């Protein structure tokens, strides 16, 4: 495997590049053959995927004997590049505290695991410090390295703070929420907040007016309060089930309100730690791939290894790939990468491949308003794709027509 992630596993042997049937190669055109390809209309065995430059081309418009570099991938799957809405870091780097080079290392680590589009998430911090961080991340978004900024905290409930510093939490005052959004210079994509707090519903409404997604999370809201927030414009459940009251038959809480409303996309962390498979399947059955977004909620250790890390000001111990606060053992994000989430969703949770593709690519792309360019394998879209072997292990990654992980390498 050719990868920027030094901790990534080696890929199995794969077929060599073949010339076109006419014996000529074309560096500007790549044709992938022999795989099962997941298209918007379903899975097509043996379909050709044609890449011209950085875009996908219509295979019907490219003759079979046209000059091309041909990569034969028998027994494999080709799916759209993964889109992660919620990611705090990787490769030993934090998006909340790292330098530009460190942040890029984290982004490239996740690319090597199939995430061709990533929204960088921050954790709770001092408001002025978060504003400075937003400015740094906005430059990377303007350069096309990330797809924008997600603020998770500080506008969350101390009752459901998870791995966020309680001393730095604040009520979601609309003026302060606006300050953070404006610091991102048009690159803010989402703000997670507890809408039951003072100013919460007003902030949800304001975010909608600013074109920023309001996400309900780290919340102690009741069912009724959650419904009010959805009516005000909240459209995402931040890692559903986690950091919110459990579903009850007399007090259904936010989980029920978020699952039952067709306007809400629910994030799920499928790492085998955050959710029982039954809870994950329940969400999929109720919302379907069209309303589920598989996320990592990854922190620095993703693609890097066990050890002691910082998440904001809090110390985190990662042992056997599970991140927990050093003080009390609270789960502190994940070390998940989306290729592992895909593999688990299909092989452990038993979900249909097409639903997993929707949840890991099409749905988050649509939520971000990027579905005209990414999220599915259609002519004219960016050539972002992932090659998986027959057991759904990562084999190759292409971003904008260039191999990040080359399936031709041993």
Automatic annotation (TrEMBL):
GO terms for molecular function: N-acetylglucosamine-6-phosphate deacetylase activity. Its EC number is 3.5.1.25. Residues 77-403 form the Amidohydrolase-related domain. Pfam families: Amidohydro_1. Residues 1-27 are annotated as: Disordered. Keywords: Carbohydrate metabolism, Hydrolase, Metal-binding. It is an enzyme of class 3 (hydrolase). Belongs to the metallo-dependent hydrolases superfamily. NagA family. This is N-acetylglucosamine-6-phosphate deacetylase. It comes from Streptomyces chilikensis. The gene is nagA.
């Amino acid at each position: 495997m050719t990868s920027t992630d030094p901790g990534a596993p080696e890929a199995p042997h794969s077929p060599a590049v073949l010339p076109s049937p006419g014996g000529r190669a074309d560096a500007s055109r790549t044709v992938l053959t022999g795989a099962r390809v997941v298209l918007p209309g379903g899975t097509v065995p043996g379909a050709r995927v044609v890449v011209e430059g950085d875009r996908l081309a219509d295979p019907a418009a490219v003759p079979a004997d046209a000059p091309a570099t041909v990569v034969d991938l028998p027994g494999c799957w080709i799916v759209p590049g993964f889109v992660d809405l919620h990611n705090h870091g990787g490769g030993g780097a934090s998006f909340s505290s790292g330098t530009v080079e460190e942040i890029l290392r984290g982004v490239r680590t996740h690319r090597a695991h199939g995430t061709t589009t990533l929204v960088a998430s921050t954790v709770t911090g001092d408001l002025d410090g978060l504003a400075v961080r937003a400015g740094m991340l906005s430059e990377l978004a303007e350069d096309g390295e990330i797809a924008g900024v997600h603020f998770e905290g500080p506008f969350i409930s101390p009752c459901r703070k998870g791995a966020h510093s309680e001393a730095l939490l604040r009520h979601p005052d609309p003026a302060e929420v606006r300050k953070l959004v404006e610091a991102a210079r048009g690159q803010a994509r989402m703000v997670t907040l507890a809408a039951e707090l003072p100013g919460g519903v007003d902030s949800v409404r304001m975010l909608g007016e600013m074109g920023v997604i309001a996400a309900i999370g780290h919340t102690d809201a009741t069912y009724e309060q959650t419904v009010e927030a959805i009516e005000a414009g909240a459209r995402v459940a931040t890692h559903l089930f986690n950091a919110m009251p459990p579903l009850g038959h007399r007090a259904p809480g936010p989980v029920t309100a978020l699952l039952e409303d067709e306007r809400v996309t629910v994030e799920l962390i499928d790492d085998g730690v955050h959710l029982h498979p039954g809870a994950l399947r329940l969400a999929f059955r109720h919302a379907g791939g069209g309303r589920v977004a598989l996320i990592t909620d990854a922190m620095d250790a993703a693609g890097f290894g066990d050890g002691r890390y910082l998440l904001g000001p809090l110390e985190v111990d990662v042992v056997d790939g599970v991140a927990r606060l050093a003080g009390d053992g609270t789960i502190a994000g994940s070390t998940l990468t989306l290729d592992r989430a895909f593999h688990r969703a299909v092989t452990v949770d038993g979900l249909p491949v097409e639903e997993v593709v929707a949840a890991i690519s099409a749905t988050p792309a649509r939520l971000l308003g990027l579905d005209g360019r990414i999220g599915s394998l259609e002519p004219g879209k960016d050539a972002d794709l992932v090659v998986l072997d027959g057991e759904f292990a990562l084999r190759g990654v292409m971003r904008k027509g260039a191999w990040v992980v080359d399936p031709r390498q041993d």
